[in-house]
Amino acid sequence: MNKSNTIKAGSFSRLSIHQECARRAYLAYIEKIKEPDRGIGPLTAPDGSKEWHNDRGSRIHQLAQDYVEGLIDRFPNELRKFKKEIEELRKRYKSGKVFTEEMWCFTNDWMPCESNDWDNIYFRMITDITIFHTKKSATVIDYKTGRKFGNEIKHGQQAQLYQLGAFLRYPDLEEVTTEIWYIDQDEIATMEFNRNQGMRFFKHWDNRMKTMTQDVEFKPNPNMNSCRWCPYKPSRSGDCSVGV
Fold first, then answer.
1. Distance between CA atoms of 110 and 151, rounded to whole angstroms?
2. How far apart are CA 177 and CA 7, in angstroms?
3. Phi and psi for 192 in degrees, rounded to 5?
4. Are residues 88 and 79 in contact, defined by beta-carbon separation less than 8 angstroms?
5. Sign of CA dihedral 110, 114, 117, 123
6. Alpha carbons 61 and 171: distance in angstroms, whole number
7. Cβ neighbours of residue 105 under 8 Å, at least 6 residues apart?
8. Alpha-carbon torsion 202, 126, 114, 133, what sign?
9. Is 11 left (phi over 0), alpha (psi -120 to 50) or beta?
10. pLDDT tens digits along 87-124
């Protein structure tokens, strides 16, 4: 392992993987080892098709984006539990009040930067839906497929990060609402923040980024939880010999 290498830029997923197992983060983001072919996945889709969870999630996200943007006219059956809400998004998108799939990028001093500013990007996040009600008020929506139970803490952390990103990117905002739309459960988890409340999370995320970007050891954390879905464990690619 070349210990002079460090992870230069972060995202929520990168932070999560590094916190779970730094060795996996090293293999993925520094060595850039491609994940092995997963083959046919378990039965995960409501229609009974064989599809991996994250593949299905990406497909449904794309369907939602295409429908809201008016690129497809037939309403996707996978989104039927949120038909009323997504129809409203489509209507408001036409009026320029809804933005889809925005990438928010920040420098290492957490100033907004362009998504192609490769030399200066320190952190990036992608929002599924951003609605600006006024210059001072916005809602950030994140679609979730699959189960809600057991993921509430992780999803709550994402919501914290989205609202923080909104306040950092848009200095006129005074109120941000985050909504997690559980597409399969027909549930919405909502949190509301004013600027003072939201900015209290800055130190936490700044510290997590420093921990990851300053790591030069990338110690493994082998256990049943962190290794369960790791593509580099001995039974998958084998690039991590200590995985279980």
1. 27
2. 31
3. -120, 140
4. no
5. positive
6. 28
7. 112, 113, 114, 115, 117, 121, 123, 124
8. negative
9. beta
10. 999 999 999 999 999 999 999 999 999 999 999 999 99
Scan for tokens 């997690």, then name that residue. Answer: 180
41 contacts: CB under 8 Å, gap ≥ 6: 50, 51, 52, 53, 55
Both tokens of 117, joined, read 């500013």
pLDDT score for 4: 57
Among 159, 96, 105, CA closest to 133: 96
Tell me the residue type at 118.
Answer: W
* 184-204 residue pLDDT tens: 999 999 999 999 999 999 999
Q: Is the pTM of this model over 0.85?
A: yes
In sequence order, what are the residues at sequence separation of 6 or more whose Cβ sits closer than 8 angstroms to the Cβ of residue 191?
156, 159, 160, 163, 177, 178
